[in-house]
Input
Amino acid sequence: MSNITAAITGIGSYTPPDKLTNADLEKMVETNHEWIVSRTGIEERRILKGEGKATSFMGAEAVKNLLEKTGTDPLDIDLIICGTVTGDMVFPDTANQIGIKSGCTNSFGFDINAACSGFVYSINTGAQFIETGKYKKVIVVGADMMSSIVDYEDRATCILFGDAAGAVLLEPNEEGYGIQDSILRADGSGVDYLNLKAGGSLMPASHETVDKRLHYAYQEGRVVFKHAVKGMVSATKDLLKNNNLKSEDIDWIVPHQANQRILESVANMMDFPLEKVLINIAKYGNTTSATIPLCMAEFESRFKKGDKMVLTAFGGGFTWGSTLVTWAYDGK
Ligand code: UT7
Output
């Protein structure tokens, strides 16, 4: 085993300016602000608008923000990994579009589709490239334009999702900072409860798939809710146990933002005081692969070098996982 760890050395983010509030949704489906806030904690989301703008636009903006904040030359970037379920096209991948749009023209890249666990899967994949010693600067992006696959006639899902992107820079560290360990899991039997059925090889696009609204995200909310709490708690418990840590040793939990009540249940079951659980769901809703880096960007100024942090997520697949990070710099 090498003694190189993958340290997070910077964070960037992008949220589109246009807001979709609960009051806006009240005009589109039969719902109300009180129900949405009490059942999900969400007050508004961001929606990407504009001709020719898609997930890679947001990803590239987050990367440009990251490069600027860290003073990094885009030509020094070796690899871009993008967690997303809403790539610009079925192929080619979105990571390469982000690369060209952000000037990272010496890099290669690829996408990871793990739904709401996309960022946790991607950051662990990126860390492997750093730990081998071969790659020096890896950018991990979480970006999703959920408004492109949300059915705005389905009140149980359209209230949840928004658009955003976040990005982190991974660099080698020999003092032990960075990604320490992770538990990543998947259970394909969850496919029926959270999916987008049409447009893949199983059900190519046809008039029928459009008529049946099969190009939109589908979710059985109650089933997913229960699995999400169970998955995030079990992965985090195993992770702490494997590293001889207790809940009180952890400074910050950065969870995937799916539902305020899920986050409160996880905190409660893990004995994490809510002040340690970073939550910004009220402003952005569930932005799928983007939630964790977006949340890290928002709370970056609170982080201190040496802080212990757990990133945890659950999503379609089912996929889930938790990652232990030792923070590498004092937030600014
Ligand atoms: O990020 C990936 C993973 N995703 C998640 O983790 C999401 C997990 N699930 C959830 O967050 C929640 O299940 C939802 C927010 C989707 C739904 O909340 P819930 O408390 O589980 O509601 P429910 O599905 O049990 O529905 C309760 C009631 C139903 O009415 P009846 O059958 O009791 O008369 C729904 O029709 O609430 C109704 N309802 C709504 N009412 C007003 C569902 N959506 C709405 C709405 N406004 N938008």
